[in-house]
């Protein structure tokens, strides 16, 4: 198992989420970190929010390391020492529904609390928001988005689509404009590009300046069956619903089947579970509508015949 954080030859830091934890191999005795001091309230708050998510152990570790780096650099600056000014642009690689947007939003919140960002807001964009219809239009649209993102995070999903139209496509102009603003305004906003792993690797080859401008490359692996079930249980608990034993068994068996039947890129992980449960809650409401007498338990329970899977529609 690879270390969750590893340095590549090009200087990028690669982080793998949801991987099995292991103690680092060191020459000195390993000393477990102490509890976070009360003064680091911002980090504690974000860690609590990450704790409510499934499969984010290594992301929590990564956020703590970035926090520590920024915190220590501020202390060095206050002591008259040289402080690093590393750009914090990131690349998120993984399939849909693995928590990329949620994590981006939490990072913005943390960086606002640490005064790294002045607003901490998240601007979500895709190809249509960046690419124009005529020469010069794309650069203007991209500049406008960057302007909206100043003080916060510009999150571009399916970023690899910017490079799929060939040399004459305006997507390349959007890439070039983003690269320029990443350099000119590198400490005024954070750019996060997200998409499928293989496609994002190909995307990095489109512009020679892309690799070096993303010091943080983060992999979001697919959720396991147990993690998907936990996601579902947490969603239902928040809405004050629960699965019957038969419904839980049926959902588990279906998830096993759907993960094997579809390619990894075709399965939307947590998003798929959320869609199934939302449809099933509506189906339960229709069932109860036809019953004269039902109690609190009935109102809370999703039964096996309430479960509606996307493949059944």
UniProtKB/TrEMBL annotation:
This is Stage V sporulation protein K. Keywords: ATP-binding, Nucleotide-binding. InterPro entries: AAA+_ATPase, AAA_lid_6, ATPase_AAA_core, CbxX/CfxQ, CbxX/CfxQ_RuBisCO_ESX, P-loop_NTPase, Spore_V_K. Belongs to the CbxX/CfxQ family. CDD domains: AAA. It comes from Robertmurraya beringensis. Residues 86-224 form the AAA+ ATPase domain. NCBIfam families: spore_V_K.
């Amino acid at each position: 198992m690879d270390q969750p954080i590893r340095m590549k030859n090009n200087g990028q830091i690669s982080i793998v989420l949801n991987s099995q934890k292991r103690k680092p191999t060191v020459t000195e005795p390993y000393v477990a970190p102490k509890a976070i001091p009360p003064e680091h309230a911002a980090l504690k708050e974000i860690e609590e929010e990450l704790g409510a998510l499934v499969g984010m152990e290594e992301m929590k570790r990564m956020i703590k390391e970035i926090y520590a780096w920024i915190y220590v650099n501020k202390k060095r600056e206050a002591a008259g020492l040289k402080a690093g000014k590393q750009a914090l642009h990131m690349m998120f690689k993984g399939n849909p529904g693995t928590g990329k947007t949620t994590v981006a939003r939490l990072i913005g919140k943390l960086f606002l609390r640490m005064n790294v960002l002045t607003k901490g807001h998240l601007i979500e964009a895709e190809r249509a928001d960046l690419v124009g219809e005529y020469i010069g239009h794309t650069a203007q649209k991209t500049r406008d988005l960057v302007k909206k993102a100043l003080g916060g995070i510009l999150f571009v999903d399916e970023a690899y689509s910017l490079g799929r139209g060939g040399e004459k496509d305006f997507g390349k102009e959007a890439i070039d404009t983003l690269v320029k603003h990443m350099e000119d305004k590198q400490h005024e906003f954070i750019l996060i590009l997200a998409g499928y792993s293989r496609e994002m690797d190909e995307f990095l080859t489109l512009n020679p300046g892309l690799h070096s401008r993303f010091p943080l490359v983060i992999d979001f692996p697919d959720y396991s069956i147990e993690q998907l079930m936990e996601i579902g249980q947490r969603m239902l608990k928040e809405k004050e619903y629960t699965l019957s034993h038969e419904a839980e068994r049926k959902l588990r068996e279906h998830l096993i089947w759907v993960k094997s039947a579809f390619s990894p890129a075709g399965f939307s992980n947590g998003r798929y579970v959320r869609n199934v449960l939302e449809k099933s809650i509506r189906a339960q409401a229709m069932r109860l509508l036809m019953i004269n007498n039902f109690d609190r338990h009935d109102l809370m329970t999703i039964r096996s015949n309430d479960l509606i899977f996307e493949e059944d529609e």
